[in-house]
Amino acid sequence: MSTNNTARIVGPETVRMLELGHPWVVADAYTRKWPGGRSGQRVELCDSQGRFLATALLDPEERIIARVLDRKRIKLDRTWLTERLKRAILLRSVHADLGDSNAYRLVNAEGDSLPGLTIDRYAGYLMLQLYSAAWRPHLKLVTQILQELLAPVGIYEKSRPQKTRELEAVSDSKNYGGLLAGKAAPQRLEVRENGLTFLVSLEQGLNTGLFLDQRSNRRDLMKRVEGKRVLNLFSYTGAFSVAAAAAGAAEVTSVDASAGYTDWARDNFTANRLNHKQHEFIIGDCLAVMGRLAQGKKRFDVILMDPPSFSTTTRSRFTTRGGTSDLVAAALPLLNGNGLLIASSNHQKVDTAEYLKELRRGALQDGHDLRVISLLGQPEDFPYPVTFPEGRYLKYAICVKSGGSAERCTQ
Question: Per-residue pLDDT tens for 75-87?
Answer without folding.
Answer: 999 999 999 999 9
